[in-house]
Amino acid sequence: MTVGTSILDLSTPVPVIDEAVVAANIARVQDYMDAHGIAFRPHIKTHKLPALAGAQRDAGASGINCQKISEAEVFADAGFEDILITFNILGAEKTAPLAALNARTNLKVVADSLKTVEGLAAAFSADRPLTVLVECDTGGGRCGVQTPTEALALAQAIAAAPGLRFGGVLTYPRPSSEDTVEAFFSATRAALAQAGIDCPVVSTGGTPSLFSAHKVPSATEYRAGTYIYNDRAMVRAGHAGLDRCAMHVLATVVSRPAENRAVLDSGSKALTSDLLGFDDYGLIVDYPDARITTLSEEHAVVDLSACGKKPRIGDKLRIIPNHTCVVSNMFDAVVFHRDGVVTRTLPVAARGRVW
Amino acid sequence: MTVGTSILDLSTPVPVIDEAVVAANIARVQDYMDAHGIAFRPHIKTHKLPALAGAQRDAGASGINCQKISEAEVFADAGFEDILITFNILGAEKTAPLAALNARTNLKVVADSLKTVEGLAAAFSADRPLTVLVECDTGGGRCGVQTPTEALALAQAIAAAPGLRFGGVLTYPRPSSEDTVEAFFSATRAALAQAGIDCPVVSTGGTPSLFSAHKVPSATEYRAGTYIYNDRAMVRAGHAGLDRCAMHVLATVVSRPAENRAVLDSGSKALTSDLLGFDDYGLIVDYPDARITTLSEEHAVVDLSACGKKPRIGDKLRIIPNHTCVVSNMFDAVVFHRDGVVTRTLPVAARGRVW
Questions:
Q1: CB pair distance less than 8 Å for A269 and B331
Q2: Which terminus of chain B is more exposed, N or C, with fewer CB under 10 A?
Q3: DSSP characters over B161-177
């Protein structure tokens, strides 16, 4: 993977990242957030690379968002100080490393239950308190308190704990649900104000409807990850065109056993099995009518029935994955390029950090 | 992950492997192969661990099966000598490391096209020839020549190349298609015999219908990987009962936002999105009526509607994944235990070896 060589000389499968597209994606989103006065906190899950988080910070990001303690440790080691972990952290085996991390960074976590708050309260003390935001389920259907009333009660529990500081409210919303999010947040803010509790941060996020962030006037902060690379799902969501997809998985045609079948060397260990509502496993840029119908770990089976021209054995193809974040997690390293010429190879420093 | 501690003290999500079940699975399958006089070549993709391949060899395995060069390098480094790579290898960036591997092991690869054979022929010479088997598509619908006539033609091309040796024929069949496989192989063997070409190995494989291996009398060798751990798909296939599933993913309930919703910390980075025909993402052993309906990278959303008892926040649950091989690929290390007490932690040495 020598700098200056063609990406077509790389051993496949390999994710290749277009430097110019990454830079343009960072600028485009930061400019929008700046124009609307919204603090922007990129989620590092998409790239898992301190170098790219540095570029996001240089562009104006207010901090970073991680999902797990072990990810945050990688970025703290790389010098990042303002870190939000959007996860309910439970158990002594986790609160001990969390306290170590809180001692050296400006750390924030979330909670959606009294159980989580009690566990955190027992592990932190007033000399180095932990900032905790209340996670709200505004329709995303994952974690989060269900009502503004519950949010207030949890905020009060946080505020009452000597080792904790109430940091605000947060949601991971359904795309295009800005009105619902605003209604939840404005009711919660009113309840908090009435109870005399200051709410410094109101945070929402997600790439698909990122450019509607200004439709949630209560929000002070936005979080998003995928926008830096984009993927097939973001193109479908209307967030970006194909030319804004910075990541391609480069794959080789290793077999053409039948007229309408090609087999690539990019299986689920490269593309992952994430469908995200599609019924095939990625878009082959040079053969848009081809369909990746089946993945095994090391093989992708492609149906060529609808293709006029068909790829040959040995051809290297560029695939836009359905979901780019999960692809980053499969590889020890990613290769960057400019116009197809390798510029750098970076180890995926926070890959596989699951706890 | 100290030896002697309870697996319930581990930081989740984490794959835990039952030592006794692994040992029993190895013995059960090797005994069957021995009883039928079939050489058994375990596929290392399931565990990716030299220590377990060593146990399989000690039990009587004839060699190992890898899928990629970079996997085979890990096992060659660990002292394994008889290695079959069941992949069409193309391109100078791959044949160079392949030649290095062939210089130090008893290596075999497969081919299903003249293009692959020509590439290999150009990279190997008579002083250290490479053994090549012809891959046959007996109905699996992935790689492989389509007919015995094509198999013969490719065998002749291999035999004619000074740097190559014809090693036999191989298939990755549909489960329970023993009659079809036998028909393909016996016709191919007859054609090869008539052409005066010796066919030292006839290889088939797959865990789901492994115990029907003896119904393919032409076969001299069987390859399988999943049998060592088993998983939800193998239970459905009838290969094993739940008590023969050696791998569980241990996960923590991190949220109970609604009466019938639990959220676990085992997302697609732990369980993977492999469905394998199921409509949910794994079996929660202690709550078999719970359904893991949605995965994001770090969260699993569980529908508890059908559950009598329901898990609480902080509970640690054991999950049998749909597909065990892909889970091994997600983790840098796996923890072994006996009756829930940690016995050893092993780095997943061949994890992420995609090329």
A1: no
A2: N
A3: -TTEEEEEEEE-PPTT-
CATH 3.20.20.10 residue ranges for chain B:
36-229
Q: Mind listing the pLDDT tens digit for each residue in A278-333?
A: 999 999 999 999 999 999 999 999 999 999 999 999 999 999 999 999 999 999 99
Which residues from chain B sit within 8 angstroms of residue A91, using beta carbons? 11, 252, 314
Indicate if the pLDDT at residue B207 is higher than 70. Answer: yes
In CATH terms, is domain A7-13+239-347 a member of 1.10.1240.10?
A: no
Query: Per-residue DSSP letters for A50-117?
Result: HHHHHHHHHHT---EEESSHHHHHHHHHTT--EEEEEEE--SHHHHHHHHHHHTTSEEEEEE-SHHHH
Are A258 and B355 inside 8 Å of each other by CB? Answer: no
pLDDT for A250-289, tens place per residue?
A: 999 999 999 999 999 999 999 999 999 999 999 999 999 9
Closest by alpha carbon to A152, among A183, A118, A185, A123? A185
Interface contact B273-A273, CB threshold 8 A: yes
* B287 vs B276: CA distance, rounded Å: 21
Grouping H, G, I as helix, E, B as strand and the rest as coil, residue B116 is: helix
The Cα of B272 is separated from the nearest Cα of chain A by a number of Å equal to 7
Closest chain A C-alpha to B327 CA, distance in angstroms = 10
Burial class (CB in 10 A: 0-12, 13-18, 19+), A69: buried
Q: Hey, is A281 helix, strand or coil?
A: coil
Residue B1's pLDDT band (boundaries 50, 70, 90)? low
Among A113, A119, A299, whose Cβ lies nearest the Cβ of B143? A299
What's the whole-number mean pLDDT along residues B176-185? 98
Q: What is the pLDDT of residue A2?
A: 86
Confidence of residue B149 (pLDDT cuts 50, 70, 90): very high
Domain B36-229 has CATH 3.20.20.10: yes
Beta-carbon contacts of residue B77 (< 8 Å; ≥ 6 apart): none
- The dihedral through the CA atoms of B173, B177, B180, B181 has a sign that is positive
ipTM above 0.95 for this complex: yes
Do residues A158 and A115 touch, judged by C-beta distance below 8 A? no
What's chain B's average pLDDT?
A: 98
Name the residue of chain B whose CA is nearest to A328's CA: B269
Residue of B nearest to A140 (CA): B301
Q: Specify the CATH number for A19-229; select among 3.40.1110.10, 3.40.50.1820, 3.90.470.20, 3.20.20.10.
A: 3.20.20.10
| Chain A partners within 8 Å of B14 (Cβ) | 354-355
Confidence at residue A1, expressed as pLDDT on a 0 to 100 scale:
59
* CATH 2.40.37.20 residue window(s) in chain B: 7-13+239-347
On average, the pLDDT of chain A sits at 98
